[in-house]
Amino acid sequence: MKNELTDFDISQYLDNKEVIAEYLTQVLEDGDIDELMVAIGNIAKAKGLSQISKDSGLGRESLYKTFNKGAKPRFDTVVRVLNSLGIHLKATV
């Protein structure tokens, strides 16, 4: 019997607000900007890139590129996507 590994796709598990919030919180606490961009991309994928594209006014193809590791998107692009996802950033001291 041959065992096959499949790629892990976290977007399949981002199925409710609490899970998404915890995922994003953990990534933010790590402080890695590249991982943050990938995490936002994973959340967008979980919600549906076509819908995020429509809601944010950004092209679907550009969304794929925007949230790849190493990408340096503009802050307003990130905010537009977060807003379309219903995610609100909050600063605490």
Can you put this structure into words, describing what you see?
This protein has 93 residues and is mostly helical. It has helices at residues 17-30, 33-47, 49-56, 60-66, 75-85. The protein is globular, with a radius of gyration of 14 Å. The model has no long low-confidence stretch (mean pLDDT 91).
Overall strand count? 0
Radius of gyration: 14 Å
Written as H for each helix and E for each strand, in order along the chain, the element string is: HHHHH
* Beta-strand content bin: under 5%
Major sheet description: none
Structural class: mainly alpha
| Poorly predicted sequence stretches spanning 5 or more consecutive residues | none
3D shape:
globular
Number of helices: 5
Q: What's the helical proportion of residues? A: 55-70%
Give the distance, in angstroms, between the N- and C-terminal Cα atoms.
55 Å
Mean pLDDT across all residues, rounded?
91
Question: How would you sum up this structure in a few lines?
Answer:
With 93 residues, this protein is an all-alpha fold. It contains five helices and no strands.
Helix-strand blueprint:
Blueprint: H1 17-30, H2 33-47, H3 49-56, H4 60-66, H5 75-85
List descriptors:
93 residues; 5 helices; mainly alpha; globular
